[in-house]
Amino acid sequence: MIDGQRVLIILPAWNEAEGLPGILAEIKAQLPGVDTLVVDDGSTDETAAVAARCGSPVIQLPYNLGVGGAMRAGYKFADLHGYDVAIQVDSDGQHDPSYVPLLLEKLKEADLVIGARFSGEGSYKVRGPRKWAMKLLSTVLSAVTRTKLTDTTSGFRACNRQLIEFFAQWYPVEYLGDTIESMVGAARCGYTVRQVPVSMRERTTGTPSASPVKAMVYLFRAGFVLLLAAIRRMPKHLKRAAGRDAYVSNRARVSSGA
What we know:
This protein is an alpha/beta fold. It has one domain (7-256): Alpha-Beta Complex (Spore Coat Polysaccharide Biosynthesis Protein SpsA, Chain A), CATH 3.90.550. 43% of the residues lie in helices and 14% in strands. The protein contains 9 helices and 7 strands. The protein has a 7-stranded mixed beta sheet, with helices on both faces.
């Protein structure tokens, strides 16, 4: 526990057997009060076995669903086991667990907190069409969420109990689209989004994909996902019209069949 809250760090992992021991050891050393969950997203290596040897619970998906599918499974686990906070941390070492207390502190005034690059911390840079796409997304999503956002595709995120319940029932499974659409969906349903500045590290495993063609594909796909997120119908029973109590009571009515 941290400050009386049960905190779960969810690590979506696809063929991350090499890097997992390091990141899990770092989390255990820096955050002894939190639990971890590795979601093995259909890996073909020893990801699940390595995570288990490191002492972390593991969910093994039968085939590769992508980060969105892995995170949906993680949120269902967090909901089922009654966690107060769920935090997404990548398994490739880019996310520094030392920033987790900062995310938790900001979570006192929000439902979803983004660990954001490009907001005064660190020296992470992108160029070309990918940079244009990120700026476009940040501008539009800042308007949607009514707060300044600089890194809307960041996978370093923390959410509270109410949003865990929301994401356990509704979480987009498309890669890239999961971070964008989940944020838009949460904002449209009345949840508060904020960000904190963090520094991202170089990945310790895997190879980043970067080319002019892939960057252009990213730009067009990001725009399509944003449009889809804006027009997609949200389930009425997940909308929170008047604060947290309204959502909780509404969810209780749905669960009881009233």
